[in-house]
Design a protein that fits this description.
Strands 1-2 form a two-stranded antiparallel sheet. The N terminus and C terminus are likely disordered. It has a domain of 145 residues. 58% of the residues lie in helices and 3% in strands.
């Protein structure tokens, strides 16, 4: 960045103190400097219109371009002024000296502070407007995804209910089959007992098994009846 404006701002005297000087042949505009921010803001549209889409939301320059912010007077945008304030030549000076230095530089360039403030307000409103655009996009996405999640959850609940019903049906079928088998086993044991008793009349060692077939058991022993 050119440092020509700095030559009109700061000089070092013999004691090492830095003083603010006006550029030769110019005078500061007290009227512009004293104009209230509210009055300046009232001259700017409250919400800028974005004429082109912003492909990279992280690029503020692209946002400013999409909002059609007009070029700053003689290039003195609020961003340039911010860079000037952070210049190594004045950034360590008292705030009132830094302020005066910028006003002197603007006056030397023939730029009113009002124009810089207007540029700042335009950029701020562009950022605020784009923030609202992004917020609406986020809210719309949240609404869609929340509904989608709700639909998915409803499907999950329906599936779980159906599967639980199947599990219960399977358990009921198992219970019925066990109950049927238990009843059959009792009748089977009765049948075997009847057979064993009949065979017992004719053998010394009864080959007929009674009871649970899986249990270790020996054939019923009965003495042959005479």
């Amino acid at each position: 960045m050119s440092k020509k404006w700095y030559n009109y701002i700061v000089s070092v005297d013999d004691d090492g103190a830095q003083q603010v000087q006006n550029p030769p042949g110019t005078a500061t505009s007290s009227k512009s400097a004293a104009q209230s921010v509210a009055e300046i803001a009232s001259t700017i549209a409250p919400e800028p219109q974005f004429t082109t889409p912003v492909s990279d939301p992280t690029s503020f320059e692209e946002i400013y371009k999409a909002a059609e912010i007009p070029p700053a007077a003689k290039g003195y945008s609020i961003l340039k002024v911010s860079q000037m304030l952070e210049s190594e030549h004045i950034r360590n000076l008292p705030s009132d000296v830094r302020k005066s230095s910028i006003l002197v530089a603007l006056d030397a360039a023939g730029v009113e502070i009002k124009d810089v403030i207007q540029d700042a307000i335009r950029r701020d409103r562009a950022l605020d407007t784009y923030e609202r655009v992004q917020q609406r996009a986020v809210e719309e996405l949240e609404s869609r995804k929340t509904k989608e999640n709700s639909d998915i959850q409803a499907q999950i609940d329906k599936y779980v209910t159906e599967q639980r019903a199947k599990i219960q049906s399977n358990n009921d079928a198992i219970s019925r089959e066990k109950e049927r088998f238990t009843g059959w086993r009792l009748k089977k044991q009765q049948e075997e007992k009847k057979i064993a008793e009949a065979v017992g009349y004719f053998v010394t060692e009864n080959p007929i098994t009674t009871g649970d077939v899986n249990a270790t058991s020996s054939p019923t022993k009965a003495t042959q009846r005479s």
